[in-house]
Amino acid sequence: MFERHNKLTIASYILLAINGVAGALIAIFAVPEYLRNGNYLTYLAAGLLCIIPVLSGYLAYGIYKRSIKVLFFCVWLWALQVFRYENGFWTFSLRFGVDLSYIVPIGTGKLLINLWALMTFIVLFLAYRGVSNSKHAV
Fold it and tell me: How far, in Å, CA of 21 to CA of 15, rounded?
């Protein structure tokens, strides 16, 4: 636990809360469409879409409660969301919530850089670095 919030930790849990709300809106609109298809993979995707907003809310609450472990977990979780690769056959990504992507064509595929995740990662990383370097970290 860290002793008090600074501007970056406050920005961190606000960004995570926004991401959770966006994830909830995506789930509300996408889950009925997934359930119409009737495929077990779409049921899995629908279930994951319902879990993501809860996870974002939990992580935002953990940072609000000043948990340095949750802040550290968030840094790595959002680092994994920055890049996504797509081609005609498959997509490799970990993303949920807000997705504002910059597209870089690579051969037959494309690399997408999620600018929202990059911004959130930078804020989380700076918040973690500031909190872990302070003498008030417990």
Answer: 10
